[in-house]
Amino acid sequence: MRVSLAAWMAVAAAAAGAWGAGGIARGADLADEQLLYAGKYAECLDACSKQIIAGNTDPPWYLLKIRVQMTLGRYEAAMKTAQDALDHNAQALDVRLAMVRVLRANNKPDEAKAMLGSIGELASNAPWQYTDPDSLLALGRAELMDEDSGADARKVLEQYFDKAKALEPNSPEPLMAEGELGLQKHDNALAAESFQAAIKLDPNDPDAYVGLARALEDDPEKSNAALEKALELNPTHLEGLLLEANNLIDGEAYTQADGVLKKALEVNGEYPRTWCYRAVLANLAGDHVEEAKDRVKALETWETNPEVDYLIGEKLSANYRFEPGAEHQRQALKFDPEYLPAKAQLAQDLLRLGREEEGWTLVNEVFKLDPYDVTAYNLVTLHDHMAKFRVVKAEHAQISMDPGEAAIYGDRVAAMLNEEYAQLSKKYEVTFAQPIHVEIFPQQKDFQIRTFGLPVGEGFLGVCFGPVLTMNSPAALTEHPENWQDILWHEFCHSITLTKTHNKMPRWLSEGISVYEERQRNAAWGEKMVPAYRELVLAGKATPVSKLSSAFLRPPTPVHLLFAYYESSMVVEYIDGRWGQGAMNAVLADLGNDVPMNTALANHTEPIEKLDADFAGYLRKLAEELAPEADLERPEIPDDAPPGLRTQLLAAFRAAHPENYWLTLEEAQGLVEARRFAEALPVIQKLIEVFPADAGQADDPHLLAAACYRGLNQPAQERGALAAFLARNGDAVEPRLRFLELAAGDKDWAAVRKEADNLLGINPLIAAPYRYLAQAATALGDRAAAIGARRTLLTLDPVNRVENHYELARLLAEENQLPEARRQVDMALEDAPRFRDGYRLLLSIAARMDGTGPQMHTNGHE
After folding, report:
1. Are 21 and 70 in contact (CB under 8 A)?
2. Phi and psi at residue 483, in whole multiples of 5°?
3. If DSSP codes are grouped into helix, strand and coil, which group holds residue 35?
4. Is 460 helix (H, G, I), strand (E, B) or coil?
5. pLDDT band at 101 (very low <50, low <70, confident <90, very high)
6. What is the pLDDT of residues 559-574, one digit of tens each?
7. How far apart, in whole angstroms, are the C-alpha atoms of residue 745 and residue 673?
8. What 3-state class would DSSP assign to 663?
9. 223 neighbors 239 (Cβ within 8 angstroms)
10. What are the φ/ψ torsions at residue 469 (nearest 5 degrees)?
11. How far apart are CA 534 and CA 619, in angstroms?
12. Strand, helix or coil at 862?
């Protein structure tokens, strides 16, 4: 499950502009600006004051002084400075733009609006006076700030920012303006490119690094590096500190986030964005009295500021509190009905709450007002495509699918959801007030846009918001097949637990329960202890239960992220084993009543410190019991070691570890590749004996054994090896196809039917499993299943249409569905006019229809 920060990051520059922490046009070539960069605010103020007193009353010194005063929250002093600047520079647009921000920060929104309007009026009355870079940038930024202007972002980019850049190619300021626009309109590619170019021109500006960190949100490593650089340049950089707090909140590191916010308040105790984050923390802690106080404080400097409720609501929604998030967006729109960020976020909230009619209406409204907004454009385009989807009904879900896919496996989706709801709603004591919206997308980019608003998040298979569940269909995963039934089970389990807790549960517990329930449903599903996890546990890299949410925050490698899922699921398994399902239900009920996670655990298990210690011992024991007789140590050879040294180190390791599992596996793989099957089998058998639980992995010895048995023409043994592998692997396609071929050859129709169903759980859009299912169901006397399989084959298998029409006709005749049977055999004969068995069946059906032939009884005999 992924929480997107795109919306928050997109307006960060706009918020800074509104509140004056950054974005005011800077004085070019002012050496003292470096003092601001470094956070030496007092020195910078002193330098500006001295210059102004000395008679330097042109805009740059005033603007820099205003910027420092606004950063420090000295809004009244900034008002005096701005008025003085305006008295000396009445026609300067950048001074007027600074005054707009100062007026807003001093709770004078009407005067700010009038001042903002005056910028456009001056430029309209004397356009030839405002063609310099500073004026162009001020005009562009003013248009973007004016909610009533209906600013065309592309026009702003081309007519103002690009022209300023052409006039002053060595200035970073036009690039900074472009980057701000990119973030505001969700065009992160433009933003990243612009901020990177600005950094090349001015590598000491922390604003540029914070902007870059926001633009690179989908590359956590690079985003973190940019943020670290910003805070290295200026440890008291307000926006840098708030981005750090934002990231900590997403990792549910609330105590650390609170500490960072306190640092921000030391810089500026009045900064509204800081109080917005404190309100979010209070909400997440269930302290709604403190939340209300923090919101009031955020509105203190501008009591109708729509950005306050927008930012609080967006951050709550990012933490899955969509209902209160939507309420804050509605409040923001009461302050300013034309405030687009709130409209866009409310649209997303409503879509994630399953209120689609209002949500899509708002999306269209945002797009009409701002066609440059990337997210709005993506969603409008997607909505047109989704209008063609077919709705399949389950008992407690409404499933939207591609119509072709719905015809093929929509019933299977509905059946699985019915089964899961029956099991888990009872287990977790939950009932749904309304059906869950399930949306399945055959194109990955459509899934990404519906889920995140942007085509990002390639590693995600499905996401659940509670009332709404989105996932990729098998058609989107053909290169790397995944079991769609497993994905659906996992995500729908989220709907159960999020409903139980009113979306008030930490990510680790939500993911842990879903992975645990995967394993309960099918032993081949879900994460299990594997050598990579064993190594992490024995190396002391497991995360304490009390801090498990941090394991999901920017994990260093994909393995660490998967381990976080696994460890979380084992905490759930451990609690279930020691205290039972009742304890887990009580924990979830506490969470829904705003009890903190660790307190809820302590209430129904044991003190959190003891739980940390006891679970750590439990997990370590599991790791130690994984193949205790196997030498699982891995050779440590540097990646950059030259070939000669590599060979030497490997030889030394081999000498010290003659029974090493990995070296033995490598030996077995080499023998199989050389087709020395008889020699390979004893080596493989040794691997299986010391590590039988390794089954199901990509390098599973059972697969090597199956390859050997196939090469030696020993089908019974090959089938046994494949069965051992498939029992622990829910995603493999080719091994299942081979198993089906062998089982069908043995006429083991029960096994064929089971594995055909399992294969349909991976990819129901290929013909092979339906052929095997049709054969097995026919042999087992399940004509309904055989008929369904044959009908699907007519859609998926154009090569064998004659056979499928004929077999379907025969099955329908056995069911006494004679008109339809005749139609099917007619279609078979259209494609194969000399098909004798088809004519015989047609004559039989015709005779029965006119009453001259024997009737078919339900057991299939005449």
Report:
1. yes
2. -75, 110
3. helix
4. coil
5. very high
6. 999 999 999 999 999 9
7. 27
8. helix
9. no
10. -130, 125
11. 9
12. coil
- Which residues have a Cβ under 8 Å from the Cβ of 259 and sit 6 or more positions away? none
Query: How many degrees, rounded to 5, is the angle at CA 749 between CA 745 and CA 755?
Result: 95
Give the model's pLDDT for residue 741: 98
Buried b (16+ CB within 10 A) or exposed e, 749-776: bebbbebbbbbbbbbbbbbbbbbbbbbb
The answer to whether the beta carbons of residues 504 and 592 sit under 8 Å apart is: yes
Separation CA 639–CA 457 (nearest Å): 29
Cβ atoms of 762 and 481 within 8 Å: the answer is yes
Q: What is the C-alpha end-to-end distance of the chain, expressed in Å?
A: 57
- Per-residue DSSP letter, 633: P
Q: What proportions of the chain, in percent to the nearest 5, are helix, strand and coil?
A: 70, 5, 30
Q: Can you tell me whether residue 354 is helix, strand or coil?
A: coil
Kindly give, in sequence order, each residue whose CB lies less than 8 Å from that of residue 74, ignoring residues fewer than 6 positions away.
none
Task: Determine contact, residues 760/769, Cβ cutoff 8 Å.
Answer: yes
For residues 305 and 299, what is the distance between their CA atoms, to the nearest angstrom? 7
Share of the chain above pLDDT 70, in %: 94
The tens digit of pLDDT for each residue in 341-364 reads: 999 999 999 999 999 999 999 999
Give the C-alpha separation, 33 to 43, whole Å: 10
Contact between residue 288 and residue 321 where contact means Cβ atoms under 8 Å apart: no
Q: What is the pLDDT of residue 857?
A: 45
Two tokens, residue 22: 């950054």
Distance from CA of residue 70 to its chain's centroid?
36
CA angle 35, 36, 42 (to 5 degrees): 75
**Alpha-helical runs (H) found in 319-471:** 322-335, 340-352, 356-369, 374-386, 403-427, 444-452
Tokens 């002391």 — which residue? 540
- Edge-first strand listing for the sheet containing 390-393: 390-393, 397-401, 436-441, 468-472, 462-464
Q: Which residue has the tokens 């918020």?
A: 15
Residue 857 CB contacts under 8 Å (≥ 6 apart), including other chains:
none
